[in-house]
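Progress note, sequence design subtask.
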């Protein structure tokens, strides 16, 4: 598979930086609300997650199970909250991220 690259516009760069910033904030808020977690793992991955999810990966938010959607495997499990924040950015997730690690929540965490 060949990845094609196009230089992002200044507006796109600003949005990617802003999205990464929001992901950091969401990760910090969710781990703080849970009273545990690894916020430094999340904050260090936010820029990569922003670019991957908002610019590189092909996603159909209206059809998350679509076979042509790109797949993402997070091997840095301690950074699960930033993955949830990325899903929130795309509109996949509507559950409050502050539900991290609650028994009634779908948001698991390490």
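Output:
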């Amino acid at each position: 598979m060949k990845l094609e690259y196009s230089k992002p516009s200044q507006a796109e760069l600003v949005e990617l930086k802003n999205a990464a910033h929001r992901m950091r904030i969401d990760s910090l808020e969710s781990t703080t609300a849970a009273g545990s977690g690894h916020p430094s793992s999340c904050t260090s991955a936010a820029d990569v997650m922003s670019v991957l999810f908002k610019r590189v990966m092909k996603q159909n938010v209206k059809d998350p199970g679509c076979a042509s959607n790109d797949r993402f495997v997070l091997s840095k499990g301690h950074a699960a909250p930033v993955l949830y924040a990325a899903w929130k950015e795309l509109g996949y997730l509507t559950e409050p991220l502050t539900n991290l690690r609650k028994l009634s929540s779908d948001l698991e965490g390490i």
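Residues 22 and 85 are 8 Å apart (CA to CA). Work on this subtask will continue into the next period as scheduled.
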